[in-house]
Amino acid sequence: MSDQIKLQVNGDVKICSPHTKLPDFLEQMGLNPRLVAVEYNGEILHRQFWETTEMKAGDVLEIVTIVGGGLPV
Q1: 39 and 65 in contact (C-beta within 8 Å)?
Q2: What distance in Å separates the CA atoms of residue 33 and residue 26, rounded to the nearest whole number?
């Protein structure tokens, strides 16, 4: 389909529609945008820029989920 673009996410190829905003892409992947950190094309992307960041063909993302934890009680 010509209306899909390919991205690399954590080393795997993913597809999405052109102009998909980063938070929407994260949700499409089943992730809660509030619980992840994103490296976008080699740079940590601050949350203030997420709403204006559109996915483009060839983008490379590294996504890290935040996991709570602590010492056993």
Answers
A1: no
A2: 6
What is the pLDDT, as a whole number, of residue 66? 78
Nearest to 57 by CA among 38, 41, 39: 41
Both tokens of residue 42?
């080699």
40, 58 Cβ separation under 8 angstroms: no
Distance (Å, whole) CA 24 – CA 33: 9
Beta bridge partners of 21: 54
Q: What is the mean pLDDT of the chain?
A: 92
CA distance linking residue 17 with residue 2, whole number of Å? 9
Can you give the C-alpha Rg of the chain in angstroms? 13
Q: Which pLDDT does position 61 carry in this prediction? A: 98
Residue whose entry in the numeric block shows the structure tokens 């499409």? 28
* Interior angle at CA 63, CA 8 and CA 2, nearest 5: 30
Q: What's the whole-model pTM score?
A: 0.85
